[in-house]
Amino acid sequence: MPKFAAGVVKFQQEVFPENAALFEKLAQGQSPEALFITCSDSRIETGMLTQSQPGDLFIVRNAGNIVPPHYKGAGATTAAIEYACVALNVPHIVVCGHTQCGAMKGAMNLDALDALPHVKEWLSYSQAAVEITNELGKDLDEHARNLLLLEQNVILQLAHLRTHPAVAVRLARGDLRLHGWVYDIADGEVYAFDDANNRFEPVSKRYAAEVAKHLALHTHDHPAL
Amino acid sequence: MPKFAAGVVKFQQEVFPENAALFEKLAQGQSPEALFITCSDSRIETGMLTQSQPGDLFIVRNAGNIVPPHYKGAGATTAAIEYACVALNVPHIVVCGHTQCGAMKGAMNLDALDALPHVKEWLSYSQAAVEITNELGKDLDEHARNLLLLEQNVILQLAHLRTHPAVAVRLARGDLRLHGWVYDIADGEVYAFDDANNRFEPVSKRYAAEVAKHLALHTHDHPAL
Amino acid sequence: MPKFAAGVVKFQQEVFPENAALFEKLAQGQSPEALFITCSDSRIETGMLTQSQPGDLFIVRNAGNIVPPHYKGAGATTAAIEYACVALNVPHIVVCGHTQCGAMKGAMNLDALDALPHVKEWLSYSQAAVEITNELGKDLDEHARNLLLLEQNVILQLAHLRTHPAVAVRLARGDLRLHGWVYDIADGEVYAFDDANNRFEPVSKRYAAEVAKHLALHTHDHPAL
Amino acid sequence: MPKFAAGVVKFQQEVFPENAALFEKLAQGQSPEALFITCSDSRIETGMLTQSQPGDLFIVRNAGNIVPPHYKGAGATTAAIEYACVALNVPHIVVCGHTQCGAMKGAMNLDALDALPHVKEWLSYSQAAVEITNELGKDLDEHARNLLLLEQNVILQLAHLRTHPAVAVRLARGDLRLHGWVYDIADGEVYAFDDANNRFEPVSKRYAAEVAKHLALHTHDHPAL
Question: How far apart are CA C170 and CA C180, in angstroms?
Fold first, then answer.
């Protein structure tokens, strides 16, 4: 019995009517703030995690939040990146990994993936992160080594993103900003990559100025709150 | 100023604490009810649309909710389908298209996509739906023809799904059910494909029995409501 | 000493003169009734099996009567399907497997194919049929399991056929009919797939009405018989 | 009304019983004399043309009797060649083109193939033959130029055959012989390539010694004829 079908009916009865004005506006077009690339993992609920509304995020989800490097050909992720940049001119791209990621566990142990040949091939796009982790994480305990892999995978996918012409040209002219995140589903923390210092730090710290500014604006906009 | 970063901080302060028990449980593993394949379009908020919780849906999002037919090689969608079927044994797969889909508009007019070469190639996986629409929709007005394309694209992607071994084998032994949906973002309606009668009908009608059963159970679980 | 060269000389001396009028007509063009996709196996003689004349069947033969799912690119089978549908508008496509098929034996035992790497890769297009057979045929004896594989392979290739735009559009407008057959070379029986009831039955039963009609017409055309 | 289904029933009633012994023997295995690669064109009836019996020829048929050069990957023609050589050890391979070939007409005029994109890509494997024909055939009338293309295409596909490892190794040790033919469907003539003299001549002349020897043997075997 698919719960999700009942959920849609509940959405239609309880949620849509309250947001009818927003959906009417959105039927005219979309202008999302970001391309958000994250894992297919069911434990990531993008709307909840980012407290965003319909219309805010153009979303790509695949196993392992992976971005293949640019190549000539048809690819799900490649096409979506091109659409987000060229057709929608998004000013931000987020690559968001997460703890307990089955894809990344598989990447660390490819020999165990014989029953998943396509996953195995797909994870070749994370291989550099695995090798870096094996090098740099030799003396770490398992938890810390897993976290290192998640971070290195996000950094690698950001590098892959830069190989896409539509991304590279917008970065070159300052129209686009890249963000690398790792979401810890056990405690809700999100670690954001600080490119200049080559480290991850909590999102509240990494975006402190902007969060404060946004909260101030938000307060100004809605004085009653 | 990225609004989504402020949203994460809000999530951490207001939402996560209330759901801490759920997230603690989810940190042990996932067992989603469905693989949900939908478009990257920002106007689709999967959690809101299906009223689902973290853990409920394994989600693939790309431009046009497209499923390439099975082939040997590495592909985002192919790998995620394999993972959902083989590693997670999801009992349902939903392919969910939507109105106002930019990818489908592009598919109807590929000549206008010269600035989006990867999107153009990616949309070759929707070509049969375009050709069927041009044939069967000749006498329809633009709105009805667009809707026909969205429906035919979903039907085509379901056909592509059946070429994936992990899907085919589970269908053959009755362990998997496929669902084809089209979501109208302007009025909140979701049309679901009725395979036996080769037509789409409102989700509340298509799943009437299951919705009723679920709502009954739900009421039983929470008598206070 | 190639017997087939002597055969051609015999054809020129004994057969061509009797059919000169037919060949003269055929030199103007072809309008075949069907695209007939079958195995390269030498034991299948398409003209003998279908009692057809030159001009009747547009024929594709490869190892395993396989149809790769549609993809953008150059492929022998893909190109021939497109030509048969778009250039010749054939009203029927038959996929005809057969007993004792070496390709299907190989598909059941890929590990034994290390000396045939291209065959091994090619047989990935039959992988779903193998997996379904392993699931559903667990309790069958070897003969029945082999037959199940041949049937499942034909059903799978029909599913692949439907992913080709030229096929999909003609099916949608009712201009094309698909047929799935398994030929038993030991006893001459041909089993035809009954889509509605999801089973194979003897060709004489499956096409009873049409065979009767054709034989009646044939008798009418040639009253002397 | 598919005539070919009625044909199968006729085969079962009239032809199979007379050949039951042959088919019983063939059910044990196949040992064909040649791999015969020819066009899908309906006007070519391989059994009739070569006066062969079931079991004699392992047959590959595609649009344009094309053999892609060897490459790593899954291909219908590549797999069948490998199977014929490695698994069946055929001593001969014939590539047989024919007059009035729609594929070759298309190859001479690729711009007219916009509605057949896969055919267009597939014909890239005949491009060298087209270019040679345009060079060497400048001063020929249309009929002669078309014939030149058919011949050059067969010569090119023989060259492609030699790039396949399974073919090359058998040629090197003298276990395999290649044959290039062009069949004129209007008059029944078959022209065979004479490698040493780089020209085509009638099959009766090209194989004169062998045909004579075969006919003598055949007479010996069946003195009553």
Answer: 17
